[in-house]
Amino acid sequence: MTSVQVEEHHDGNEAGQSAAGQSGEGEGYQRGLGARQIQMIAIGGAIGTGLFLGAGKAIHKAGPSLILAYAIAGLVIFFIMRALGELLMYRAVSGSFSEYAREFIGPFFGYVTGWTYWLFWVVTGITEVTAAAQYMQYWTHDSIPQWGYALIFTVILYGANLISVKLFGELEFWFSMVKVTAIIGMILICVGILTIGFSDAGDTASVTHLWDQGGFFPNGIGSTLMTLQIVMFAFLAVELVGVTAGESKDPKTVLPKAINTVPWRIAVFYVGALIMILSVVPWTEFVPGVSPFVAAFDKMGLGIGAAIVNFVVLTAALSSCNSGMYSTGRMLRDLAMNGQGPKFFTKLTKNGLPLVGTTFSAALMLVGVWINYQWPGEAFNYVVSFATISGMWAWIMILVCQIKYRRKADRGELPQSTFRAPGAPYTSWFALAFIGMVIVMMGIDKDARISLYAAPVWALILGVGYLVMQRRNTQVSGGGKAEPQDAVK
Asked: Membrane-spanning regions, if any (predicted)?
């Protein structure tokens, strides 16, 4: 359903009817994701390499105050997710952010959002397959080159995503289960050390480490603010649950439950885990480039800990790459269905999978294999910054669309959502201001500034592409939706 169709649908007495009822079947997809899988996708989306690896650099910069940074950023993420939830219960579609931008802001913003979110996952896929290849070196010690692992993982995940959406859901379920189990296990071990005093860290572990090593803000509030980009990168992909809307078996029940778990997920997996780790190991002992989980296990004298954490971060990276394979094909198909991308991206397999879009995206992710071949040491850093800025664009669009939707709904022009965001629109404006502050911090940080240089280049490419498609396809300016092509036999 396009923005034009939505306007027609909501005329007169039809305004109260369910636009939210657009089904995955109506889009050609199959509803193969159950409640169990959606819940774990939502949980796993908030736990990635940003926590397992990036937190080491952030702790080094901010000390214990990083806990506060994660808590505040987590609150902002909850506001974003509740804004997304309100939109999803108004109209649950697989295109999600792109569809809402198209309806509430205009066709051009739908086009920009769809292609930018697609690029975000392609770049993230390259980042994570690079990380996964690096983690494998822990066990194989270069017996297989890093680029070889990147190729193997890309091919395996591509194949899995072409079998069925249910298999994608199962992979994400178990990837997420590993991450969740690891963090809960770490928290329980730390609680045991603090209360019983076992392991090598038992004699020195204390919650006073949170303030007795230079204070809670040992490097000043400014240093804490500079870590916000790292913190926000850790939360990227939490919005993926919105892309699954068109393939969820019971989106009106499952999605609100998944979104409402955001606060406790962040409280346990980020704030809780950091409080425990920094109580057992003083923040001064953490160094950039070393996982805080590995450092904590070493301090405890648990040698097996490094191998465990390496396995966990490997699954986290593969989980993110798997999500990238899933979301890119759906986003390209949504763009094509709205005349904002090549029509061949609309093709589905007999199992309701976007074959061409997923294949095209996976082929671009193979660029990561080449990057790993050319620059195995710097590959991860080359692409991670741009992933942050492009991912945050989706959050901005979610918030702006929710503000505009709420205005129309309150005026009676659109049906009210059954899952209204509490405190909106004020919470949405607060979240937008926070994201703006993070972008400013990225501009100040010389290491992250490269992403801001790349953004105008990407905007120029999109602008030129949009003008070309306007001339070739009147549907771009009119918002009309292309008919889906027959399933691939």
From this structure: 40-59, 65-84, 104-127, 147-168, 180-199, 219-241, 262-281, 301-321, 353-373, 379-403, 424-444, 450-469
What integer is the mean pLDDT of 281-292?
Answer: 83
DSSP 420: P
The amino acid at 358: T
Report angle CA 435, 441, 444 to the nearest 5 degrees: 150
SS3 content of the chain, % helix, strand, coil (to 5): 75, 0, 25
122 closest CA partner among 357, 333, 290? 357
Helices (H), 141-214: 146-161, 165-195
Please report whether residue 486 resides in a domain. Answer: no
Inside any domain, residue 481: no
Using a 10 angstrom Cβ sphere, with 0-12 exposed, 13-18 middle and 19 or more buried, the burial of residue 42 is buried
In angstroms, the CA 181 to CA 277 distance is 16
| Residue 477 counted as domain residue | no
Host H or E run for residue 308: helix 304-337
Query: Is 409 within 8 Å of 16 (Cβ atoms)?
Result: no
Residue of 459, 395, 406 lying closest to 433 (CA atoms): 395
Crossing angle of helices 228-235 and 54-62, rounded to 10°: 150
Q: Could you list the residue range(s) of the whole structural domain that residue 223 is in?
A: 27-472
Name which of 437, 470, 441 is nearest 76 in CA terms: 437
Which secondary structure element, helix H or strand E, spans residue 426, and what is its range? helix 426-444
Task: Calculate the dihedral angle through the C-alpha atoms of 415, 420, 424, 427, rounding to the nearest 10 degrees.
Answer: -140
Integer Cα distance of 294 and 82 in angstroms: 34
As for how many domains the chain has, the answer is 1
The CATH number of whichever domain residue 260 belongs to comes to 1.20.1740.10
Residue 133 in domain: yes
pLDDT number for residue 77: 92
Judge contact between 253 and 245, C-beta under 8 A.
Answer: no
- Higher local confidence (pLDDT), 66 or 6: 66
For 22-47, the pLDDT digits (tens) are: 444 446 666 667 667 777 776 666 67
Give the CA diameter of the chain. Answer: 72
